[in-house]
Amino acid sequence: MKDFTNKKRIVVKVGTSTLTHKTGRLNIRRVEQLVKTLADLQNSGKEIILVSSGAIGLGMSKLGLVERPTDTPSKQACAAVGQCELMYMYDKLFSEYSLTVAQILLTKYILLEDRRKNVENAVERLIAQGVIPIVNENDTVAIDELELEMGENDSLGAIIATVAKADMLVIMSDIDGLYDSDPHKNPDAKLIPYVEKITDEVRELAGGAGSKLGTGGMKTKINAAEIAVEAGIDMVIMNGNNPKKLYDIFEGKQVGTVFCAQ
User: What is the per-residue pLDDT for 219?
Assistant: First the structure.
C-alpha cells in the first residue's frame, strides 16, 4: 500500500454526476461537503487545484432542460450559462472559509507545447498566493470537442496535473473505482484496489460513457491514468458521493482504485 500522507500538491477532478442530482439540479449537500473538505485540506498545508465539470449540467437546469442537448449551439448556451452558476457557487462557498478561488478555462489548443507555459505560470502564481485554481474546459468556444463528444474533464485533469507538477490526481466519479467487470450489470463484480501497470487487459475493462448528464466514463479515466502515471503522478479513482473520504486517502486508508506512478 502506497503512502500518500505527504502528498502536497493535489489535483481533484469532480464530475457532473458528483455535483448534481439525477434531476440535473445541484446536489447542495454534497457540494458543500466537497468544498468544506477541500478547504480543510488547503488549510492543512496542501495545495489544491480543482478541475470541475458541471457547467453544461448546471446550464441545463438553469434553462429548464431535462435532456442533454444534441446540437452544438445549445450545448454552447448551456455551458455559457452554467459556467457562471458554477463559479458563483464555488466563490460563495469557498469564501465562507476565507479562501479565494480563480477561474481557468482551457481548450486543447491552449495546452499545446508553445502555450502551456503560460498556463503553468498562471497556476504557479495563483498557488503561491494561496488561491485555489478552478479549471474547466471552455465548452462555450471549444466547438470541436463538443461536437466530437470529447469534452470530458478526466484527461484535462491529468494534463493539468502534469502542467502543475502535482504530486497526485484524484478523480471523483459516480463509481467506487475500476472493477473486474461492469458493476452495473454484475452484482458480483470486484473492485480492483491497485493497478501497478496499465495493460491491454486493464484498458479492456473500461466501458462506455457515464451518466446522462456527463460525457465521461471509465475509458476516459483510464486515459487520464495513463497520462498521469507516465508523468510520475499517482492517481486515484474514488466515488464522489462522500467527499469526506478524501481525508482517508491522505490518512493512509484504502480508497477506490490507485494507479501507481511509474
Answer: 86
